[in-house]
């Protein structure tokens, strides 16, 4: 007998505001710094090994392989790095794990090579289950950090929604405020299906039903909103826009005061914290707007959302310098105007809306597709005529059939039509393969050859000059010291 109460296991992520005291905040800041040091040391070590391997390849030694591991003990030294002994070893290990995750993304061609990080872009610490546990108190749940034998302290946090128990947490400091974020598994009554399965199901619908459950979305810059094919315009609240403008004015004022302050003074640190809070306000507002907008879309009757395939990175790239071939002087390339457009594009939450809509629609078994953006704003949604004169700012008037609509509404209808056509043509039927890469353990032989070669038998003379062999020997003798200081 099979049960009809089928369910699936889903992962959800939460982010709560944490309230550590002064002592615990100092300890967490030390954990962040040590984990960042291990991460940067692994980056430098990987670069050193890659450079050494390239040098060996030049001299024909193709069997040498650069080591790829999560070892971190070589960076601990009582004289050079005594502060690493003041934090739990799990914190240092997690720094090496974070580097390995970034390295694997590079090998899968999902991201760039890991690079050295600073306090600006690496101000968090990953804590695994050995160093935390959730404790229920009269005031609410708290996180007990440390082990039972060596407790560090209790971290209160504000849980604004129910959550499950995670295996690891991330503690982050943003503009003087602390946050705890983690993922947890939970059961869902909805059986999650893959996008290509949803595409087959939608393709089986008749034209009228498919048109009713399809929604085209046009992401705009001028109005800072999302226009739908149904004629809706979803935008920021006017009061919120005014608040962001005031915060931006206040941020510029604090920047001017910081320019006159003394480096390293307490007043400057206070100004930096206030400036960061004003800049962080706009980030939170945009995240909240993207979450509210996508929540509203996913809970509508639409089952197929169509977006333009916008290359945000290319669209927000600065223009190249232009030189006059005849005079040799640099010409105006409107870089200042393009910088203003880039800020508008990045402030319009295009990427956030895309990412949030995809994962929320996936939980509801709804499909999100992308279509080319060419001529979606200049083509007529009724007769299909494409001409630049059709659009006059926000007003769309077709020069052939006379259709008059809001330009963004017309673009949303065109995007919807393109999405339905792509679905009928089978553009979403193919399952996207996941990029995978396997790691296999190898023998720890420096030359990468057989044990006989490693012991010194049948070794051909080194063809390199004497001064190169001497430099290589000195370099090998200094590897341990270099690795301990992260060079």
From TrEMBL:
<dbReference type="Pfam" id="PF07282">
    <property type="entry name" value="Cas12f1-like_TNB"/>
</dbReference>
<dbReference type="InterPro" id="IPR001959">
    <property type="entry name" value="Transposase"/>
</dbReference>
<dbReference type="InterPro" id="IPR010095">
    <property type="entry name" value="Cas12f1-like_TNB"/>
</dbReference>
<keyword id="KW-0238">DNA-binding</keyword>
<keyword id="KW-0233">DNA recombination</keyword>
<protein>
    <submittedName>
        <fullName>Transposase</fullName>
    </submittedName>
</protein>
<comment type="similarity">
    <text>In the C-terminal section; belongs to the transposase 35 family.</text>
</comment>
<feature type="domain" description="Probable transposase IS891/IS1136/IS1341">
    <location>
        <begin position="211"/>
        <end position="317"/>
    </location>
</feature>
<dbReference type="GO" id="GO:0003677">
    <property type="term" value="F:DNA binding"/>
</dbReference>
<keyword id="KW-0815">Transposition</keyword>
<dbReference type="Pfam" id="PF12323">
    <property type="entry name" value="HTH_OrfB_IS605"/>
</dbReference>
<dbReference type="GO" id="GO:0046872">
    <property type="term" value="F:metal ion binding"/>
</dbReference>
<dbReference type="GO" id="GO:0032196">
    <property type="term" value="P:transposition"/>
</dbReference>
<dbReference type="InterPro" id="IPR021027">
    <property type="entry name" value="Transposase_put_HTH"/>
</dbReference>
<keyword id="KW-0862">Zinc</keyword>
<keyword id="KW-0479">Metal-binding</keyword>
<feature type="domain" description="Cas12f1-like TNB">
    <location>
        <begin position="350"/>
        <end position="415"/>
    </location>
</feature>
<dbReference type="GO" id="GO:0006310">
    <property type="term" value="P:DNA recombination"/>
</dbReference>
<dbReference type="Pfam" id="PF01385">
    <property type="entry name" value="OrfB_IS605"/>
</dbReference>
<feature type="domain" description="Transposase putative helix-turn-helix">
    <location>
        <begin position="11"/>
        <end position="40"/>
    </location>
</feature>
